[in-house]
Amino acid sequence: MGIPAWVWFTVAAVAGVAGFALLATDRAQRTARNRERRRWAALRGWQFEETDHVLPTRWEAGAIAYYGTGLARDVVAGSTFTADGRRQVYVLDHETGGKVNSVLVGVRCRRALSVVIELWLSTVPFQRDNDKMPMPDLLGPVGSRYAFVTDVPAARKVITPDLIDAAEEIGGDVTVVWMENDWVLAAAPPNSSPARLERLLRDVGELADVIDPFDPDPSEREEEPVAEEDEGGEVYRPSFGRKQP
User: Fold this and answer.
1) Helix crossing, 194-211 with 5-44: angle to 10°?
2) What does the DSSP 8-state code read for residue 54?
3) Series of mean pLDDT values for 10-residue runs along the chain (245 residues)
4) Which sequence ranges are marked TM in the entry (predicted)?
5) How many Å is the maximal CA-CA distance in the chain?
6) What's the rounded Cα separation, in Å, for the pair 13 and 19?
7) 80: number of Cβ within 10 Å
8) Comparing C-alpha atoms, which of 71, 80, 106, 79 is closest to residue 187?
9) Are 234 and 132 in contact (CB under 8 A)?
């Protein structure tokens, strides 16, 4: 005996309602996150852009290699103070396949590294299939993370005890921290609050200070004006949608 048509109709209707409810919930969460991120940017005096297709293309390693280039949502751009001065920063939702997989936080250094260093949590299945950016060589444990690098001898010079200590402060909710060219980046969970992102920016900024000290010789440092507290005053103003040099 076959199943009556009304049963199939009921199943389809329930599935449709469930799908609509899920879509509505996702849209509501995204709208709330958008408002929260926009408000945070305004309080900091930073720029905000809803979508940027080009920005993720400036990086190839870490979470970008793992998830794919994708696009940037709810992008915050500006600059912030670290112990070694003001640095350019980005915060963005990294979206691939229509889903936000992580919140990327990036702090820019003044000079580029000659090696890519990825620091992954041991609990993450970090192997990937990416012809453009294959998995780098395993260097070994670095604190509670595993280091994968494109040049082992060069990486050993960069991974100092100070860097390990700074990386340990990042937090166990961040799957990967990586250093690529003149950037230090970290991938936080989706829906990370502005308070969490503020702390992560400070921690990533400390890593940037370790690998890119402003002046290794204090006697050569020029006299600088005392910086006011960073409550705004954005310096860097990017052109969204255009790849930066």
Assistant:
1) 60
2) S
3) 62 55 45 86 93 94 94 95 90 95 96 95 78 84 95 96 96 96 97 94 96 67 37 40 43
4) 6-25
5) 91
6) 10
7) 20
8) 106
9) no
The answer to whether the Cα torsion of 122, 166, 203, 208 is positive or negative is: negative
Cα separation values, 141 from 55, 63, 164, 175, 178, Å: 31, 19, 10, 15, 14
Question: The tokens 């958008």 sit on which residue?
Answer: 34
- The DSSP call for residue 184 is E
Q: Which pLDDT tens digit goes with each residue over 44-71?
A: 999 999 999 999 999 999 999 999 999 9
Specify the DSSP class assigned to residue 227.
P
Structure tokens at 72: 């940037």
Q: What are 92's strand-pairing partners?
A: 104
C-alpha closest to that of 94 among 59, 118, 123? 59
> Within a 13 Å sphere around the CA of 238, how many CA atoms are in the beta-carbon half?
22
CA dist 145 → 66, 157, 170 (Å): 16, 18, 11
Q: Tell me 125's DSSP state.
A: -
